[in-house]
């Protein structure tokens, strides 16, 4: 289990207020996630301080390389990393690490498709566009490896924002109706907590998966050729009694512990 406590991909919640997603890892660890999963603690990759939107954007390439280096070490050791964010921009580090190794896919579990390519600002709303090559070179072409994942190797699950992307999309309604697919190659799993019916996230929306539905989805994904997984966007500052942190931890344990065994 590796912490990637970066807020660099997020805009301020309101004037002068930094989001709390960088404390996601601390909150889930406090609920005993490491021990409950029987995971090995791989430490953390510290992120630069959150400053303001475009200054943060300029710091993401450096942090992406640092995270990719650490993930590369874990993957070379035969580990299956579980990365605790942080915001969705940490996906760049994971997919760069995998692109350096070869050809991999992406299972993208998110309430939004994060495929903004115009009027760009916060990378957490653009991460899927970036990793499929649709952003400035400083983000999307690190090491000359654009794209980090091919469109045809991405499946997105659970979106409910009405947006589109040139990848296989199984939105919330289709997912509940039983539509199913997985990437055609070994894949990374991205989980944004806003896929849930949850207010303690950066951009909450009505409806969303229940914890039980998410655990079922993750068990299906983790039964395939998964190389690692990340969890992002949950904001402990919006969960004052800790109940959402405990519920999210229990969901991940329910999903991932059988796969670990």
TrEMBL record:
Any one of the GO CC terms: cytoplasm
Gene Ontology molecular function terms on file: arginase activity; manganese ion binding
Keyword match Chloroplast: no
Superkingdom of this protein's organism: Bacteria
Annotated coiled-coil segments of the chain: none
Keywords of this entry: Hydrolase, Manganese, Metal-binding
Xref: Gene3D superfamilies: Ureohydrolase domain (3.40.800.10)
SUPFAM superfamilies for the chain: Arginase/deacetylase
Presence of keyword Hydrolase: yes
PROSITE patterns: ARGINASE_2
Family designation: Belongs to the arginase family.
The protein, known as: Arginase family protein
